[in-house]
TrEMBL record:
This is Phosphotidylinositol phosphatase PTPRQ-like. It comes from the Eukaryota. CDD domains: FN3. InterPro entries: ECM_Regulatory_Proteins (IPR050991), FN3_dom (IPR003961), FN3_sf (IPR036116), Ig-like_fold (IPR013783).
Amino acid sequence: MLYRYESMASYNATVTPFNYDLDNVTKMVFGTPSKVSVVTSGSGVPKPFNLKQGSLDQTVVALSWTRPTFPDFNVSWYFVEAQKANYSNLTSSTSISITGLTPYTKMVVEVRGCTGPDFSFCGHARVLSVWTDAGAPSAPFTLELRNISTNMADLQWQAPTTLNGPLSGYSVNVFETVTMQLAMQVTVDGRSSQFRLTNLTAGMDYTVEIRAFNFDSYSVQQLSSSVAIAFQTVKGEIPKGEMRFLWPEVEFALVVMAGHKVEDQA
């Protein structure tokens, strides 16, 4: 039985012996299976085996592979290429690190086995898709506050220009400006660009600080630099009703209806 497989590739196979049952020739009786590793033949310098990526990093791709052993080829060099990263290197090592990459980038790496320290001695490439981990985004910008009242305000911003990841969210901290005491801390979904600040104090000075962030593959929060804006809530209005003032030797009252003085009384 013949199957079409990739040339110069390594496979694991299982061989199981069997006999036909003498009392029932359609029934097969199987023996103990044996596992064997086989390598297909081909033309040219063989490809490296077991090409894989190491631990994820934001700016580095670590690669390793296994030297192929064939009777007719002495593979002792390797040509590594990543066109998207504008990287190429000829090395005698079976591992290499590609540095200076951009976070959250996917690319294709090719590794060729070579019988000499020149590309002309190299064979076909073993291909692997690799990627870098998510990193910190750039800061959000154009921070604005609208609809400011005695106890709330609408915060708006624009998303970072450099995401370096899926943009997991925003961290919003609100401080009382004078004391820098934390008044509010919330996390906003990365798909949003606005948030309503509530339960504020009338006539209070506040400072709002916002950072964008991503979670990397290790669930670590990667924060951007912060941007901040200050504002003051609206001061409380004069309540409806009667306010009585006492002056030396004089007593009078102001009756206030809807903010308008309607009567003076001595």
